[in-house]
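Re: that chain you flagged

S.,

Sorry for the slow reply, it's been a week of failed gels. I finally had a moment to sit down with the sequence you sent. For the record, here it is as I used it:
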Amino acid sequence: MTQRTAPTRKEVRWTLLFVSVGVVLVALTLRPRPTPVVVPPPLPHLDRILERGTLRIATVNSPVTYFNVQDREIGFEYDLARRFAADLGVELEVRTAPFHRLLDLVTSGEVDLAAASITVTPERRQRVRFGPAYQEVTQEVVYRAGSNRPTSPEDLVGRNLWVVAGSSYAETLRRLKAILPDLSWREIATGDIEMIFAAITSGDADVTIADSNIFAMHRRFFPRLAEGFALTEPQPIAWAFPQGEDRSLIERAEQFFARIKANGRLARIIDRYTAHIPDYDRLNTRYLLRHIRTRLPGLRPYFRQAAEATGFDWRLLAAVAYQESHWDPQAVSPTGVRGIMMLTRATAEEMGVSDRRDPKESILAGAEYLKRMHDKIPARIEEPDRTWMALAAYNVGWGHLEDARILTQRMGGNPDRWADVAKHLPLLSDRRYYRDLRFGYARGREPVRYVGNIRSYYDILTWKTGRDQSAVAAP
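Prediction finished late last night. Pasting the structure tokens below so you have them in one place:
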């Protein structure tokens, strides 16, 4: 029989240690393991917009791009972006910023895209991805009429040249400096092109550079400005998107622009904002700006009253009246029409006007007569074409407008589109065309100029009263 000896203290300690370690190991083995966290891949850019329910864009405040007047948002870029947002089925959220900040907002992800008549340049392609081009522009040298006209890049040397900071104009000047070492300029980061145009008008600056579409739009607000020469060949403009492999939003934009180019929608939007610009008259615009200060304040209550009665924007009615009489209640034409709205005797009697020279009577009657023309336009015709045709009918008569629309259709144009009808209206003075039309001869060029002038006046009034409420004192 084997006799067992008692374990030593050392052996007991080691035994306890091994048992404890074993218990811990068993416990660790049996403890539930945490479920690994799976990070889902980020949603594509387009899906994030759809989930959010808003398309966020960055733009600048200008008549070319976007501005808000009395809670009404308008502008070429805004119109395009609004339609794109509707195409996506989301709301549009607009953020305005200085031009030099736009691409920063895109690259930081604070907005989905920038839409501000942005020229596509190699330098900018290093920061953002561009969508499809929808217009072409040239960079124009702009100076104050009456001063020495610059005709070449060499003429910019020694001039007080201001440009918008972060613009493609600054990029062009940096390239020019390689061949013109004495060329210098000032980049304005605290203002916009409008502020620079004002500085040239006042003499604080000599020249600037602006895209041709921007200058064409603004020159009506700054009639002392003139075009020197084109500094570049035509360049495309496009929306700016974030860089990266995610092309979901830009692909949708490509589809959108392809569609509106094919169906003519893009051409109509461009026409809405630019077709009337060639009718610009520098001297007439200077008179208009003066009369906004001197004649309009006393008439504004009547335009507003007429607007409430008819639904038209009061500025549109004011633009019609300016085209008719330059806001002179005593105006009389050689044909006998008279007053603010230049009513004929027959029209005045039809509208119940007792005194055509009474400003209130004339404005209210003229607005109501324009509404009658507007109501006659077929309901299928969309705005603003509907209003432009109503204005043409106000000028030349409803029958002649209908003749022009019939002629437009016969010659393959769209009788429901003002741009097409405007091309055919002048043919009403050509016997080869008017002899088989119901209402015969008409001076068809006049309503085309008439509508173009009113559109320009309306733009100026909208921009001026929106930017400077003091320009037209409240009644």
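What I noticed first: Confidence is low (pLDDT under 50) at residues 468-475.

Talk soon,
D.
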